[in-house]
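To close the section, here is one more complete example, presented without commentary so you can practise reading it yourself. The ligand is S-adenosylmethionine.
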Amino acid sequence: MHSNNENSAEIFSSSNHELSLLLETIRLQSGIDFSHYRRSMLTRRISARMATLGHKDIRQYHRSLIDNRTECDLLVDAIAINVSSFFRDKIVYGLLEKEILPELIERKQSSKTLAIRAWSAGCAAGEEPYSLAILLQERLKRRIDPWELFLFGTDIDQKSLQRAATALYPRERLEQTPLGIVDRYFAAEGDEFRLNDTTRAMIHFSHNDLTSAQTAAPGASIFGDFDLVFCRNLLIYFDLDLQALVLKKLIQTLAPGGYLILGEAETPHALPDNGLKVIDRRHRIYQKILT
Ligand SMILES: C[S@@+](CC[C@H](N)C(=O)[O-])C[C@H]1O[C@@H](n2cnc3c(N)ncnc32)[C@H](O)[C@@H]1O
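Output:
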């Protein structure tokens, strides 16, 4: 019996060209360009989708994709991998709560600009920006009135954005959420949990393809100038050139003193040399040097 990896290798060994053609079909049908995503990840995901449908030949699978928007969407879903959870990574959210947000809030208070701008790029179903919105409410003792909070969540996957708007989550998405927070911010609905309306209203969600040369910051944010930019567990799917390109774009949207929060698995050597200082190397947290 073959392992999954051996199967992927077999299916794709003589068909790099066919893979490129298939990616072009996806691009034409969905507008999403996966050509600079890591080949090993692409072959694994496409092979898994082919196995589910009983396809053994990539040419045959490619032919079945043409003019088949439903299958194309399912394949995009399989490649985009939108697994996330609230407070994903205790240590990172601990640093946010105890060091980053206090520093940011104090700096804003002393400059008398009570506004915070944040962007979660690749936000899946909203777990990441909503976790931030909860932490901000906790930190500001829920007296957020004097503050202007501009919080954005963007993703390439429309279904994830729809789920973010609904804000109804299965229990496992809340496994890392402290119990007190679950009680204060969520209400049980059957087997699932719905986030409260106040927190839902704090995030502006929109579609944004990070790899697109046409867009930088989310459209509604107008110019970026973010105090916090999250891009976690997403860059790992890009090849190094694309990582460097996306990172450059993200860094440009940071305000001086703004924090860039990557995932532990992201490749820091793709970080261009650009006036960032390291806040926590292991957890890939950086700050744009204040000018
Ligand atoms: C594994 S999830 C990570 C979610 C969240 N950042 C976290 O760490 O829990 C990756 C997300 O990136 C999105 N994504 C993939 N390619 C993208 C792109 N080119 N532009 C924007 N989002 C993308 C996927 O749809 C998915 O929701």
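Once you have examined the tokens, check your reading against these statements. Residues 90-288 form a domain with the Rossmann fold fold (CATH 3.40.50.150). Residues 12 and 56 are 10 Å apart (CA to CA).
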